[in-house]
Amino acid sequence: MKIFLLGFVQNMTLTTGSLFSGMCTEYFALSSLALTKQVFSADNDKFACQFIRQNVRPDILVTEDLAEFNVQELPYVDVFLAGVPCQSFSSLGCHRP
């Protein structure tokens, strides 16, 4: 029996890529619904990158500042994922003494 999900047959592998990946929660949520292969991830936090290398193992891991990286060089993927800002952890957020 074939189960259709997001227009894809369940036994097909969706390629994904993410920017501002963090802990790749969007990838893990999607991978619980369909076969996925993370082609690229991008984050400049060293702990997030360590987590991504150990748990997601994308083909490409961009660790540099995305403001200075040409994202058009990244390969095509079926599903593009982007992490939401983590204001409570961001060094740019408003911090009370």
Structure description:
The structure is a single chain. This protein is α/β, with parallel strands linked by helices and 97 residues long. It has two helices and six strands, in the order βββαβαββ. The protein has helices at residues 25-31, 46-55, and strands at residues 4-5, 8-9, 13-19, 35-42, 60-62, 79-82. A four-stranded parallel β-sheet has the order 5-4-3-6, covered by helices on one side. β4 (35-42), α2 and β5 (60-62) form a beta-alpha-beta unit. It is globular. The protein starts with a strand and ends in a 15-residue tail after the last strand.
Radius of gyration: 15 Å
Report the uncertain regions: none
Number of strand elements = 6
Mean of residue pLDDT values: 81
Helix content: 10-25%
Following the backbone from N to C, one meets helices and strands in this order, namely EEEHEHEE
Sheet with most strands: strand arrangement: 5-4-3-6
Strand residue content: 25-35%
Q: In DSSP terms, counting alpha (H) and pi (I) runs of 4 or more, how many helices? A: 2
Structural class: alpha/beta
Main sheet summary? 4 strands, parallel
Q: What is the 3D form?
A: globular
The rounded distance between the terminal residues' Cα atoms is 59 Å
Oligomer: single chain
